[in-house]
Amino acid sequence: DHTGGKLWNILSVTVGGIVAVCLGLLTSVYIATLHENDLWFSNIKEVEREISFRTECGLYYSYYKQMVQAASIHQGLHGLVYDNKTESVRTINILERMNVYQEVFLSILYRILPIQQYLEPVYFYIYTLFGLQAVYVIALYVTSWLLSGTWLSGLLAAFWYITNRVDTTRVEFTIPLRENWALPFFAVQIAAITYLLRTHLQPAHERWTLLAVFIATFFFSLTWQFNQFMMLIQALVLFILDCLDMLPTAKVTWLYVIQVSGLLLVCVLQFFNSMILGSLLISFNASVLIARTIQKNLKKGSLLSRLGKLLLHVLFVSCLTLLVNKLIKKILNLESDEHIFKFLKAKFGLGATRDFDANLYLCEEAFGLLPLNTFSRLSDTLLFYVYIFVLFPMTVTAAIVAFQNLRYSIGSTKVEKSTEKKENCTIALKPGTAYNLIHTVLFGCLALSTMRMKYLWTSHMCVFASFGLCSTEVWGLILKCVRLYTSQRISVIRYCLPVIMLLYISYKFWPGIMDELSELREFYDPDTVELMNWIKSNTPSTAVFAGSMQLLAGVKLCTGRILTNHPHYEDKNLRERTKQIYQIYAKRSPEDVYRILQSFGTDYVILEDSICYERRHSRGCRLRDLLDIANGHIMDGLGENEPDLKPSLYPRFCEEIKRNLPSYTVHFTRVFQNKTFHVYRLAKHK
Q1: Which helix (H) or strand (E) holds 546?
Q2: Which residues have a Cβ under 8 Å from the Cβ of 234 and sit 6 or more positions away?
């Protein structure tokens, strides 16, 4: 019987592993096919392919292109470390400022592999990103499998991820975006942490798992500038569970250390990027470890005693974190991330602001609240219903376990009498389950408050819901409550329900997926193509262009011209520069605008009708409105204005320049126009 059971386990693991790999590869092919069908990517011109990498995606891809086209790897790296094309009249270190090591690595790999004759650089790049989707799906599959004990759960998680693609990923239309590089590694890290938190793990397995957690954490940190904020939430998960005695303290300490060491290693690779050193994550983790050393008896005493100690511990860690962070930022004179805190302050109603950068974020839909139609889409696949069904009993169980842990703590006189009760509670909520529960709750709160972060939650929602449907913990708790518990009933439910769910999803969504794969479109943006071709043909390679951040990223990628500003917004000087450049859409005199543009060495300025006459946002959120408010001017159109705003002495620059009045033509000459863009050359006055 023992030999038969062992063989069955080996067979199950083998089949489950093969299914995971196949699903991952199928997902990659599916995403790649959707991308090809949407743009007809294989048939359009190179300039059109590059234009399809919108906004910051184009900026990141331009560094890959730059490295591939460089005379040598050394010269390419030198061009990144001493870059004078991304920001005019300024030399910056791209490897320090931006997370582009993945572009560097891929470009070097493309140069040294014998594939140039068979594969264009752009395909090597996008296929790598689509390949990472396979890693992502496999990691989600494995996490669900580890939690539930059956790979059927992983299969359901992968199905939900694919059928809810609109809400779980956006890789097919924002390929080079940093999160598309980072989230697969984050999913691998969560899978490794889930395995690490298993009880009775052998020392050798524990060491290898810690190494896997470190590697995944390092790559996650290296590939996304917002890694520190995501890992701060993860650190809060560990902190909460450690305080409630729901995770082994030694393993939690290792995870704190891994987070900090991974981030510091990235800091070194990014030439000691000050934003990393000043991150709240480093301050928080250091504060937790210091506080734990000072407050040694946190997990001893009666319930009231422990609650008091816990409250004091939380206050001490919070105050110490803020103090350490403020001290680091003071020493380093760090202001790179101040716009994020201004945005958060305004978002959560902690004071109105006229700050241009904060309002720029507040007015973007991606940084708003999660739309309610998201839940209706997630409900179509029954994912949201199952998620809530699993979340409620697990949250109740976690609350009971936390109470029992606080009540029957180390040093309590009632420990001996309560051992059996505590063991029952611990079995009802394993450490890995507890971690994933608090993880999904906190990242759910993040997604609800900021729509752009929903992809961190919805993918984990697939994992958590599928785990619950196949879990002995969830069904054991429910059946015990209704007094119908038997091991046979649990086995039937945890295997039959997922199969029924898989059949339902396949029946309902397979026709839609087939229709989606057969639907053919083509990239079409003739105005932008015409602009890029004109720039390449009619301007010198050293020309400096000013305009919107989004458009200029494309100008750099398609033409290689020098920019005044760009979309990578994590630098105070760049934010101030962008606000100045955007005065082309404000109510300013031609002399003021000319002087501003000249200060950045501008040769040409591109005006976009879609911004000048914007209708996408409502009044108060149009770019021209944000500039008017920041400049103290009354906004255009019907509606209220704040009392202290005053009329401007000048008309709006982007509108008035088209009238070709002498006061404008003396400084600006129109050299190109189409239905969307107007390009003006600046006069060279002595």
Answers
A1: strand 544-546
A2: 259, 439
Residue 41 lies in a domain: no
Contacts of 97 (CB under 8 A, 6+ apart): 273, 568, 570, 571
Strand order in the sheet with 544-546: 562-563, 544-546, 604-608, 677-682, 668-673
Q: Which helix (H) or strand (E) holds 545?
A: strand 544-546
Residue that the structure tokens 């021209």 belong to: 624
Q: What is the largest CA-CA distance in the chain?
A: 96
Global pTM reads 0.93
The upper half-sphere exposure of residue 195, i.e. CA atoms within 13 Å in the direction of its Cβ, equals 21
Q: Do 534 and 494 have their domain in common?
A: no
503 and 542 share one domain: no
Question: In this predicted model, what pLDDT tens digit does every residue of 487-540 receive, in sequence order?
Answer: 888 889 999 999 999 999 999 999 999 999 999 999 999 999 999 999 999 999
Distance in angstroms (rounded) separating the CA atoms of residues 552 and 149: 50
Question: How does pLDDT run across 444-483, given as a tens digit for each residue?
Answer: 999 999 999 999 999 999 999 999 999 988 888 888 888 8
C-alpha–C-alpha distance, residues 90 and 200, integer Å: 57
- List of residues 6+ apart from 120 with CB closer than 8 A: none
337: containing domain: 129-412+427-510
Is residue 38 situated within a structural domain?
Answer: no
Q: What CA–CA distances, in Å, run from 495 to 141, 554, 651?
A: 16, 51, 70
* Residue 678 bridge partners (DSSP): 607, 673
Query: Same structural domain for residues 449 and 562?
Result: no
Domain annotation covers residue 21: no
Residue 643 burial by CB count (10 A; 0-12/13-18/19+): exposed, middle or buried?
Answer: exposed
Residues 453, 556, single domain; the answer is no
Please, is 280 exposed, middle or buried when counting C-beta atoms within 10 Å of its C-beta (0-12, 13-18, 19+)? buried
